[in-house]
Hints:
Blueprint: H1 2-32, H2 35-40, E1 45-50, E2 57-58, E3 64-76, H3 86-93, H4 97-108, E4 118-124, H5 126-135, E5 142-151, H6 158-161, E6 164-166, H7 169-174, E7 183-185, H8 188-192, H9 194-198, E8 202-208, E9 214-217, E10 233-235, H10 239-248, E11 254-260, E12 265-272, H11 283-294, H12 303-306, H13 316-325, E13 340-343, E14 346-349, H14 359-365, H15 368-380, H16 385-397, H17 420-427, H18 451-462, E15 466-467, E16 473-476, E17 489-490, H19 498-511, E18 525-531, E19 539-546, E20 553-559, H20 569-582, H21 588-596
Parallel strand pairs: 2-10
Antiparallel strand pairs: 1-8, 2-3, 3-4, 3-5, 6-7, 8-9, 10-16, 11-12, 11-20, 13-14, 15-17, 18-19, 19-20
Helix pairs in contact: 10-20, 13-15, 14-19
Amino acid sequence: xxxxxxxxxxxxxxxxxxxxxxxxxxxxxxxxxxxxxxxxxxxxxxxxxxxxxxxxxxxxxxxxxxxxxxxxxxxxxxxxxxxxxxxxxxxxxxxxxxxxxxxxxxxxxxxxxxxxxxxxxxxxxxxxxxxxxxxxxxxxxxxxxxxxxxxxxxxxxxxxxxxxxxxxxxxxxxxxxxxxxxxxxxxxxxxxxxxxxxxxxxxxxxxxxxxxxxxxxxxxxxxxxxxxxxxxxxxxxxxxxxxxxxxxxxxxxxxxxxxxxxxxxxxxxxxxxxxxxxxxxxxxxxxxxxxxxxxxxxxxxxxxxxxxxxxxxxxxxxxxxxxxxxxxxxxxxxxxxxxxxxxxxxxxxxxxxxxxxxxxxxxxxxxxxxxxxxxxxxxxxxxxxxxxxxxxxxxxxxxxxxxxxxxxxxxxxxxxxxxxxxxxxxxxxxxxxxxxxxxxxxxxxxxxxxxxxxxxxxxxxxxxxxxxxxxxxxxxxxxxxxxxxxxxxxxxxxxxxxxxxxxxxxxxxxxxxxxxxxxxxxxxxxxxxxxxxxxxxxxxxxxxxxxxxxxxxxxxxxxxxxxxxxxxxxxxxxxxxxxxxxxxxxxxxxxxxxxxxxxxxxxxxxxxxxxxx
Length: 613
C-alpha cells in the first residue's frame, strides 16, 4: 500500500513538472521572446541587407587605385507584389511588361521562401533611384537597397588589381556566406584578398506600412546586425611607374614586371594590350566582358604571370652561375667561338666577335659557344647524363624558375624546366645526352619562363643570391603581411660567383648588346635576349637592375614578335628605370619612338576599338 502511494506521488510530481515546463515555455515565447513576434509580423517588416563598402586599395605612395561609388538595387519580395502599377514601373525601368512578368514568375518559382527579398533590377542609376523613391507606394513588394560599385580613378593595373562580379550558384553552394546578388573578387588582388576586402554583411529590420513606406527600425534596432567595413590595402605598385609602363607598351603585345630587390615588392606589373578596369564594373561588365574574351589579342590574359616564353639569351646568366658552382668554369676559363658551337654535325650559330672568350666577355657578347660548352661540361662532369641533368635542374629551380611562386595573385603559370622523365619518354631512357638537349644552354628548346619569374631571377642576381617571394600587397589595414613574403630564399649558388656575372651585365650596357639602356650617372646592369618563336617573329627580351650596388629596381621586359632585345625591350626597360629612379624622363626622342610604335598584328581587333564606357 505504501509502495503504491509512493508511486502516485512520483508520477504526480513528474506530471506537474512537465506541465510547469510547458507553461513557462509558452509564457517565454508569448511574453518574453520577440523572435516569434518577429516571424509573425513578417508581412509588416522588411529585412534590408547592409552591404559594407569594400576596402580601398592604395598604391605604395598613397594614391587611390580602387575605391567605391554608391549604387542601388531594386529589390522585390515576390509574394507581396499585389495590385501594382506595372506599366509605370516598366516605364521607369525601361523594360517591357512581358519581361516584367517573366522575371517575377521566375523569382516566385524559386525553392526559397517567396517572402525573402530578391534582386529584381541591379545597379540602377541615380536618376532611376530618385524616380522610384517618389513612387514606391505604387509598387508594394518592391524597395530600393543601397550597395557600392568599384571605381578605378587611374584606369591602370587591371591585371594586378582584378575585378569584382556577382557570385554564381556553385559558389553559393560551397560557401554559405554568399547569397544571390552578392559580389565577390573574381581575379587579381580583388580575389586573393577577398575576405579582408569584403568586410562583413549586416541586416537591418525596418517596419513598413500598407503603402510600402518604411516607418523606422523594428524594436529600435535590437535585432539588427551591424555591417563591418572591408579593410583597406596598401599595394606595392607605384602608380606613376605603372601608368608610364602602360603608355610605353601601348600597341604592343607583351609584359613588364618591375620588382624592388630589397623587399620583393612588385613596383609595376603590366600585361599588354591592357584595358580600362572600369569597363568590367556593374552593368558594363555584361556588355564588355564577351567582347574582351573574343578579342584575338587577349586583353584579359595576364601575360606577366601566365604567359610562358623562352628565356633566350638571358638564361645564359643561369648557366654562368651554375657552371661556376659546379667548378667547370671560372672567371678565367676560355672557350673559342668560330661563329658558333660545333660538335660532330651539329652547329649552334653565333654572331661574329673576338675569340677566345672568357666569362665576363661571354656575357657582354652573348656568346652561344661559351654556354654550350659550359652546359655540356656540367652534365658530363657526372658518370651519367641523368645524374648531371638532375644536378643542373635542381640549381635552376633554386632561382625560382620552373615552379609557381607564392605570389599573392590567383593566376600564375609555373613555366617549364624540363625533367628527366620528359626526355626519357621522348628519346628513350639512356638514349639522350648533353648534346641532345644543348638548346637549354642558351634558353631555348623546352625551357619556358614567365616575365614574373625573369624579373625575380634578375632580383636574385641583383641581391647576389637571394630573394623574397614577389608580392603585390605590402600592408593590410589592421593586420600584418603574410610571413611568406618576409622569408629570405637562397639559391644553391654561392655569393662569390655572382660578382663576375654582375660585372658582365654591367659591360653589356656599357659596351655590349644593351648599350641603348645606359643612363647617365646610374650604373645599369642588363642582359638582352632574342627568343626564337616558332609562330612568327622572335620575341624581344631585356632584364636589368640598377644601381649596380644597393639596387632599387629590377625589371624584365618581353615584347612579342618584335625582334632583337636591344630594339624594343631594352629601351622600354631603360625608360622605366629612369622614370622610377629619377621621377622624370629626359629622353623625349626615345620616349616618342617607343610610344608611337605600333607592333600589333595588322588584323587585330584590339579592345579599345570595341568596348564602350
